[in-house]
Amino acid sequence: MEDEIGNLLKVWISIWICLGYCYGVGKKIGEGFTRFLLIFPVICIFLYLPLKLHSLHLGGLTAFFVAWLANFKLLLFAAGQGPLATTGMSIAEFCAVASFPIKIKQILPQKSSEPAGNGGAATVIDPKSNQNHCESPFNYAVKILLVAALVKAYDYTHILHQKLVWFLLCFHIYFILDLSFAAASAAVSHGGTIELLPLFHHPYLSTSLQDFWGRRWNLAVTGILRPVAYRPAVSTATKLIGPRWAPLAGVAATFLVSAAMHELMFFYMSRQWPPPTWEVAAFFVLHGGCLAVEMVAKRLWIDAWKMPPLPAVVSVPVTVGFFFWTCFWLFFPPFINTCKADVRVVKEYEIFGAFLKNIYYGNKNIYLW
Description:
Blueprint: H1 2-28, H2 33-48, H3 56-78, H4 91-99, E1 102-104, E2 107-111, E3 121-125, H5 137-153, H6 162-188, E4 194-196, H7 209-216, H8 219-241, H9 246-270, H10 279-304, H11 312-337, H12 341-361
Antiparallel strand pairs: 1-4, 2-3
Helix pairs in contact: 1-2, 1-3, 1-4, 2-3, 3-8, 3-9, 5-6, 8-9, 9-10, 10-11
């Protein structure tokens, strides 16, 4: 494990050096094609660096943070858009926002009754900040305990039904992503100027696919796909087919990009070649198509036929049930068969536990990944 942690440090030091270079490029070169050409080598490096890590947790999360989120933020930055284009950012804030699902807190001017050094103006945090929606430390503590319980449950996979194991893995992914994002964001927060962007918002309460993908599940990806895929597609489609149906083109583009990036993430985790079976891509293409159908159906049901929306007691089980059914059909088979996630997760926790024990007891015979 020492080798993997050493590689992790080297990878992230390289990432921050590259981001420092991008920060300098942004200071000297204006938005446009020239900035893109200067940043493009960094994008290629970010696609390569996750290959230096081999563990499912460290490698998968680094690939997600860097090869996907950071690269998309850099593409937007080249065009003068996105969170990295915020004026007045320090190099530390630039690197933090590029690396993790965080943002600089918005400061709103507000008149003050007391004189201040800025001529009577004070600054307050935007009350609409996403920080208000972040979970409490107690909720994160509960999730840590649930992850520990899930890891223990994996010891009994030989007697559990396969579908139940997949069901547990779904919650494992949910908890690990949420906890990892929160930990990474907390580690780089400083001076109260950086806030965590919520990753999930009670996805088990989704009333529709539009609600699930747009407002509740993996909001970091949703937030970056809107300016990268959805809005450009809608803008182009509006000129071709008009504004009424342009959002459908945006949905199609968004889920196609998401499908391609998820296949890339699975490659980072599995490292298997020849090419994948495209089951993961099919999962997102299917959901994109179903979401488009749902949007049309809503327009007919609510706007044209003046019918009330379905009650939550009906829509929530249907939405969540459809999500799990498609996961069992298309998402989890490659996750288990190709990535060997059920086996590797248990092994990595065992190695990590042994690593901590060896550190605590001063034993130098540390296991390797």
